[in-house]
Design a protein that fits this description.
This protein is of the alpha/beta class. The chain has helices at 16-24, 66-74, 83-91, 101-112, 128-139, 158-167, 183-196, 201-235, 245-273, 278-281, 300-305, 313-322, 352-361, 371-390, 409-422, 426-431, 433-436, 438-448; strands spanning 3-10, 43-50, 53-59, 115-121, 144-149, 173-175, 237-241, 364-368. Helix 2 (66-74) crosses helix 3 (83-91) and helix 7 (183-196) runs antiparallel to helix 8.
Length: 449
Amino acid sequence: MTTLRLAVVGHTNVGKTSLLRTLARITRFGTVADAPATTRQAESLSLFESAAGCLSLTDTPGLERAGELLERVEAQPQRRADGWAAITAVIDDPAWKPAFEQEARVLCEVQTADALIVVIDAREPVLGKYLDELALLAACGRPMVILLNFTAGRDSRERDWREALARLGQHLVVAFDVVLADWPSERQLYERLRVLLPAWTALFDALIAEREQHRDWRRQTGAQRIAVLLLRLAAHEIRVPQGDAAKRAAAIEASKSWAREQEAQLVETLVRLHGHDLGLLQLPELLDADGRWTADLFAAETLLRAGADGLGPIAGGALAGAGIDAAVGGLSFGTGAALGAAGGALVALRNPLKLAWRRHVGGEDTVQIADTVIRALLARNLGLLALLARRGHGAVQPLAAEPAAPDIGGIWSAIRSRLLAARSGGAAMVDDPESAAPKAVAELTAALL
Ligand SMILES: Nc1nc2c(ncn2[C@@H]2O[C@H](COP(=O)(O)OP(=O)(O)OP(=O)(O)O)[C@@H](O)[C@H]2O)c(=O)[nH]1
Ligand SMILES: [Mg+2]
């Protein structure tokens, strides 16, 4: 099958290797560091394979001495008629070879590539040395798209660059911050390449369609994994003999450990789903290396931060002071009153109706996961999902800020009755909601999207 070969080139430390990672959705490719000359050898990866052909990307070392090389090239008599001949005349010359070894390595990749993605750090002013690089690359005669990187920050000079590039006759320009997974910009990159390489239109169409399908699938699957866990948590219950404080405390502890474990598994699934790697994700203030949230699910602050029902600022203070240790309990959906500040009563909330019945029949208490906890889990994992969807695979910086808890008020009211219904779902609902209640899973998933 035929392969389209694109080389990623540009000044050193502009994000070339990061770009390959983000486009290929892999975190383990090459070495990324905030230092010049990190990549020393060209390295390729296969970005896409389809019936319409394959697409490979080649990462290259950064250009550092383009200006000096360009000077020598421009002194060559054949420079106007044949730029590449003029370049080889210099880089093959034993007198210059050692000086331009790195440049020669890059330019040989350029020469054998079908087209180039030229990466520019858009925070930099439009300096002569960068224009020299462009002139040198243009002399190789390969089709090129210019990618302006670092465009998301306030220090971006995207406009200056676009104007300067237009003056040079370079109009295929795309802004793309490689630490963000920004599909519209990525799509623009492929559309620009499609314009540049009409023979490969079918390949780019297939690539765009595949990426969009995959993005939708990821969103859907992420929401579905959260929905399934919400149902499982809602259906969880342990019955204990009434008045047996020790059994009840043990059941509360077991419920808490179970819920924490379930959440850690969810986080791992969401991270994997997005092609990230927990060990490399670098969210130290959020998650530990096992995918556990650093803020405990049952801590008062976690519940408050998630905007738990019925917990206003005053109740918040009271709860924090009360040092609640167990936010597991019975049914509290819709019974905001049960969550009042009085006594910080998040401990073992019970469904009065159910309890009355149980007392009558068998004298049992029920320990369940309180809805405030389920809501907090929903809020922070939806936040994580959004964060993962936005994080480019080239990003290496730790994400210090907690993802803003999405405003889930509307979502919560839409799904509350579904969760309430799951309370009586029994063991089948805890084990496998997808078989026990496929409709509930589908509805919840849709509400989370
Ligand atoms: N904030 C931000 N950082 C970026 C972006 N692109 C790259 N970086 C960072 O810039 C530094 C250089 O990135 P690399 O991908 O190693 O750059 P390179 O062009 O391959 O560098 P060399 O191989 O040395 O030529 C790393 O610290 C990246 O994390 C971006 O769009 N935004
Ligand atoms: Mg590199």
